C-alpha cells in the first residue's frame, strides 16, 4: 500500500472514531505502550508501523526527515554510515522501536543534559489531528520558525494530540573519542560531584551514579578528551572497562533494572539533595533524572519529588491499572487542556 493510501486509511479510522465516539490508541513498534497503563478499556489500536521510510537525508545540512513508522534501528544505521547520530540518545526498549515512538514518548538518554532533549532536535512535523486534518508545522532548517514550536509539542505527547506522520530532526556528528571514568563514593558525595561537573562541562557527555560508583563519560576530539581527563578534579578514578554501560543504562538493561519492584522515574533539579524515600536508586543526567525501586506508597514518592519542584511517574510495575499519577499544577493542567482541545476536540486519542 502506498503512503498516500495509508494516510487516507488513517483519516478514515479517525473520522469513524469521531462518528462512533470511540477512542484510539496510536501504536508504532509497540515497544513503549507500557507507558500508558491507564487508557480506557479496549481502545481501537491505530497501527502506523507500515508508514515508514526515510524521505530526505542531507548529511551536509545535518537534517533527516522520515516517516513515523521508520525503524529506529534503520535511522541509527543510516546516520552511522555518515558518521552522524541522534544526539539525544533515545532509548528503543526493543528492536521494533520507531521514530514516531521516539518523538511521542519524549524519552532521552544519558547525553540529554549536555546535548539537549528530543524536542530540541525537532525541526518540523506532519500529523493528522483529531478532526482528520493533515497539518504541517516547522520545516527542515533551524531558521524556519513558522510552526517551529508547535512541532515540538509532539515530543512527549504520547500520541494524545494526533497521529505523527513525518518528522524532521537535526542530527549531529559522532564524536571522535569517548572515555568513561569511574570512582567509588557515597551517594551524597556523588551528588556534590555532579553539581560541580555540570559547571565544568569539560567535554562531559554523561554522568550517572549506580551501586556506589560515579561514572563520567567524556566525548569529543581525541585531544579534547585527553585534556579533559588530565583536568579531572576527582581523585582515585580509573577508566571504566565497561564501555557499554551507557547503552545498558539507556535501554534499562543495567543490573538495577533487572530486580523486582515498582520502578519510578523522578525528574528534579540536579542539585536537589538525596530524596527521603527508602529504596534503591540510580542517578542519571548528572542528578536530574533519578530512578527508584521502592515499596513506598505513591503519595510518599510524589511528595518527595514535589518538595524540590520535581515530578514522579510510575514507569514500570506489576500493579493492576489504573496506576497512580501525580496531579499537574493548575496552570500547566489548564495549558495542557487547551492544547488538547485545539488538536483533538473530541478526545479521541488516549
Question: What can you tell me about this protein's structure?
Answer:
- The chain is of the alpha+beta class and about 350 residues long.
- The chain has three domains: about 5-175, Uridine Diphospho-n-acetylenolpyruvylglucosamine Reductase, domain 3; about 175-245, Alpha-Beta Plaits (2-Layer Sandwich); about 260-345, Alpha-Beta Plaits.
- About 30% of the residues lie in helices and about 25% in strands.
- The chain contains twelve helices and 17 strands.
- It has helices at about 5-20, 70-80, 100-105, 110-115, 120, 150, 185-200, 220-230, 245-250, 255-260, 300-305, 330-345, and strands at about 25, 45, 55-60, 65, 85, 120-130, 135-140, 165-170, 170-175, 175-185, 205-210, 215-220, 240, 260-265, 280-285, 290-295, 310-315.
- The chain has an eight-stranded antiparallel sheet.
- A hairpin with a 5-residue loop joins β6 and β7 (about 135-140).
- The longest helix has 18 residues, at about 5-20.
- It is globular, with a radius of gyration of 21 Å.
Amino acid at each position: 500500500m502506498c503512503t498516500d493510501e495509508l494516510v487516507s486509511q488513517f483519516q478514515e479510522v479517525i473520522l469513524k472514531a469521531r462518528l462512533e465516539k470511540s477512542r484510539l490508541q496510536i501504536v508504532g513498534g509497540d515497544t513503549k505502550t507500557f507507558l500508558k497503563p491507564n487508557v480506557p478499556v479496549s481502545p481501537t489500536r491505530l497501527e502506523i508501523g507500515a508508514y515508514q521510510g526515510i524521505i530526505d537525508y542531507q548529511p551536509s545540512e545535518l537534517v533527516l526527515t522520515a516517516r513515523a513508522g521508520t525503524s529506529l534501528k534503520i535511522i541509527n544505521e543510516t546516520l552511522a554510515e555518515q558518521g552522524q547520530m541522534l544526539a539525544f540518545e533515545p532509548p528503543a526498549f526493543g528492536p521494533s522501536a520507531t521514530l514516531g515512538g521516539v518523538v511521542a514518548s519524549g524519552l532521552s538518554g544519558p547525553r540529554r543534559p549536555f546535548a539537549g532533549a528530543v524536542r530540541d532536535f525537532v525541526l518540523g512535523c506532519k500529523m493528522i489531528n483529531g478532526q482528520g486534518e493533515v497539518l504541517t508545522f516547522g520545516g527542515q532548517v533551524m531558521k524556519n520558525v513558522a510552526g517551529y514550536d508547535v512541532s515540538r509539542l509532539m515530543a512527549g505527547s504520547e500520541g494524545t494530540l494526533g497521529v505523527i506522520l513525518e518528522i524532521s530532526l537535526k542530527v549531529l556528528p559522532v564524536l571522535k573519542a569517548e572515555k568513561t571514568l569511574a570512582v567509588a563514593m557515597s551517594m551524597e558525595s556523588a551528588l556534590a560531584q555532579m553539581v560541580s561537573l555540570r559547571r565544568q562541562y569539560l567535554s562531559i557527555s554523561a554522568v550517572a551514579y549506580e551501586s556506589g560508583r560515579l561514572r563520567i563519560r567524556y566525548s569529543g576530539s581525541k585531544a579534547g578528551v585527553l585534556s579533559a581527563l588530565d583536568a579531572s578534579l576527582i581523585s582515585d578514578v580509573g577508566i571504566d572497562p565497561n564501555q557499554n554501560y551507557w547503552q545498558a543504562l539507556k535501554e534499562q538493561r543495567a543490573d538495577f533494572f533487572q530486580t523486582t519492584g515498582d520502578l519510578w522515574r523522578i525528574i528534579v533539579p540536579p542539585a536537589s539533595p538525596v530524596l527521603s524515600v527508602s529504596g534503591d536508586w540510580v542517578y542519571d543526567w548528572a542528578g536530574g533524572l533519578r530512578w527508584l525501586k521502592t515499596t513506598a506508597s505513591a503519595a510518599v514518592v510524589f511528595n518527595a519529588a514535589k518538595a524540590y519542584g520535581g515530578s514522579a511517574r510510575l514507569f514500570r510495575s506489576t500493579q493492576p491499572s489504573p496506576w497512580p499519577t501525580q496531579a499537574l499544577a493548575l496552570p500547566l493542567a489548564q495549558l495542557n487542556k487547551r492544547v488538547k482541545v485545539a488538536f483533538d476536540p473530541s478526545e479521541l486519542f488516549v
